[in-house]
Amino acid sequence: MRLTQHDKLVMIGDSITDCGRSRPIGEGLGAALGNGYVSIAAGLLQSVYPELAVRVVNVGTSGHTVRDLAARWQTDVLDLSPDWVSVMIGTNDVWRQYDQPYIKESHVYPGEYEETLSELVEKTLTHVKGIVLMTPFYLEPNPSDAMRSTMDLYGGIVKRVAENHGTLFVDTQAAFDRVLAHIYPATIAWDRVHPSTTGHVTLAKAFLDALGFSWQGQAGASE
Question: If one looks up domain 8-222 in CATH, what number appears?
Answer without folding.
Answer: 3.40.50.1110
